[in-house]
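for the writeup, i need someone to sanity check this before i put it in the appendix. the sequnce is what the collaborator sent (i think, or maybe the updated version? ugh). structure was predicted straight from it, no edits. if anything looks off just tell me and ill rerun, i have time this weekend
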Amino acid sequence: MSATLAPPPRPPRVLPGFSLSLGFTVSYLSLLVLIPLAAVALRAAGQPLESFWQAAASPRVLASYRLSFGMALAAAAINSVFGLLLAWSLTRYRFPGKRLVDALVDLPFALPTAVAGIALTALYAGNGWLGRYLEPLGVKVAFGPLGVLVALIFIGLPFVVRTVQPVLEDLESELEEAAACLGARRWQIFRHVILPTLQPALLTGFALAFARAVGEYGSVIFIAGNVPMVSEITPLMIISKLEQFDYAGAAAIASVMLAASFLLLLAINGLQFWSARRHGRAGGAR
């Protein structure tokens, strides 16, 4: 008679009460995120297609889509470059006032967005400290699309810096030294050793900066000028619909913005996953 084998013991769980913790987390996330987003989608889907299209695809709203998403992508791309440079300087070099600069990076997090908008407008207006020198050169920042870009760069920079900085701090210097001993130049070391390690974090910072910029309202509303078809952002169009008690129109615009943001973030996260998997395989092959 063959003896029955006992099932292997289950490994102990790290956190006790996993089911309760998971249920609380899902409930909390549903109340704060899933249910409000679903309510917007259901409110938009509950209206006739003609009225939905009229509210979400009018020429004025389409112009706001182009401005909001275009400037958000441009600001996130600019922040990816200069945020990397700033994180590199804070991590690799010592200079006077380094701690002050490191603290100032978080200023857009703590500063109210309306205060940021007023400060940027006062700085770049025609009679501002910088605007008085830029406008005679033909560069009009305040009350135009360029002002929207400046405001989105201001509020999105910390996301890139704080995402890339820990990865740079944990980067092993032995890899760079080994590449230098093998005859690699500085650009080759950065391109083939440092950048593949930073790429997932850089894409994450880009996604966070983009997501923050798409829905920004407070800091943009003062410096944009809000000229129809020129410098009106999509959140302003939603606020305008709400002030007119056109809740169906506001839900239609919000649902389009929500869908576009979700698709763009999904594409960025897919690219990040592909990049991490590709470089992980390359590292394993080496």
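The chain has a mean pLDDT of 83. Residues 247-285 form the longest helix (39 residues).
thx in advance!!
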